């Protein structure tokens, strides 16, 4: 056994005292991996917050004034499950609730989830300088939301909720152009 001053007695589950080296034992029940992060200075917080605001402003400007960009629609010519959510959000912000529901009937569900996710991501980025990228949202939320989005997306192709916002257009998609080029 090592120096008595550097050891401690720990009682195991079967009530047998066991000698533990105090230098190797965690202090206060914490391990090095769970130790608190060093405090962040105000200048670092301000720099991260400024970066987040600038990035958010650029993204908002692109969404408001930029072209409609949907990778699914551009690649295969079919509107994606979230097609119309940006336009629905813009209609909501303008107070046009009927148009918002026409563009996407799930805007009332998706907008609050999106706002909470963005606020959480910005907070984590500013405080800890990392992005979690949706890792903190429980599966119990993602499954019902994902299934609901897919059901509404399929139902819209059959005319429910006013049908798809944009009808399929295979000729202008990358896949359609590739097939046309390969065919001849």
Keywords:
single chain; 184 residues; mainly alpha; 2 domains; two-stranded antiparallel ribbon; 53% helix; disordered N terminus
Explain this structure:
This protein has about 180 residues and is mostly helical. The chain folds into 2 domains: about 5-35, no CATH class; about 40-65 and about 85-165, no CATH class. Helix content is about 55%, strand content about 5%. It is built from 7 helices and 2 strands, in the order E-E-H-H-H-H-H-H-H. The chain has helices at about 40-65, 70-75, 85-95, 95-105, 105-130, 140-155, 175-184; strands at about 5-10, 15-20. Strands 1-2 form a two-stranded antiparallel ribbon. A hairpin with a 5-residue loop joins strand 1 and strand 2. Helix 3 (about 85-95) runs antiparallel to helix 4 (about 95-105). It is globular and about 60 Å long. The termini are far apart. About 5% of the residues are buried. Mean pLDDT is about 75; it is low at about 1-15 and about 20-30.
Count of DSSP strands: 2
Low-confidence stretches: 1-13, 20-31
- Sequence of secondary-structure elements: EEHHHHHHH
Strand order of the largest sheet: 1-2
Radius of gyration: 27 Å
Number of domains: 2
Tell me, rounded to a whole number, the average pLDDT.
Answer: 74
Distance between the termini: 84 Å
The number of helical runs is 7
Q: What portion of residues belong to β-strands?
A: 5-15%
Instruction: Please give the largest β-sheet.
Output: 2 strands, antiparallel
Q: How much helix is in the residues?
A: 40-55%
Structural category: mainly alpha
Estimate the global geometry from the Cα principal axes: globular
């Amino acid at each position: 056994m090592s120096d008595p001053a550097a050891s401690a007695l720990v009682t195991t589950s079967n009530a047998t005292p066991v000698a533990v080296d105090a230098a190797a034992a965690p202090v206060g029940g914490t391990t090095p991996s769970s130790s608190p992060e060093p405090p962040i200075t105000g200048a670092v917080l301000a720099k991260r917050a400024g970066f987040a605001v600038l990035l958010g402003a650029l993204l908002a400007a692109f969404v408001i004034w930029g072209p409609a960009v949907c990778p699914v629609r551009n690649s295969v010519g079919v509107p994606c499950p979230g097609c119309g959510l940006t336009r629905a959000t813009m209609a909501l912000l303008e107070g046009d609730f009927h148009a918002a529901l026409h563009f996407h009937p799930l805007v009332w569900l998706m907008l609050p989830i999106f706002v909470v996710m963005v606020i959480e991501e910005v907070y984590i980025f500013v405080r800890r300088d990392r992005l979690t990228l949706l890792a903190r949202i429980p599966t119990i939320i993602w499954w019902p939301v994902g299934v609901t989005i897919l059901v509404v997306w399929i139902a819209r192709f059959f005319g429910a909720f006013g049908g798809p916002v944009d009808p399929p257009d295979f000729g202008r998609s990358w896949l359609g152009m590739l097939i046309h080029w390969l065919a001849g």
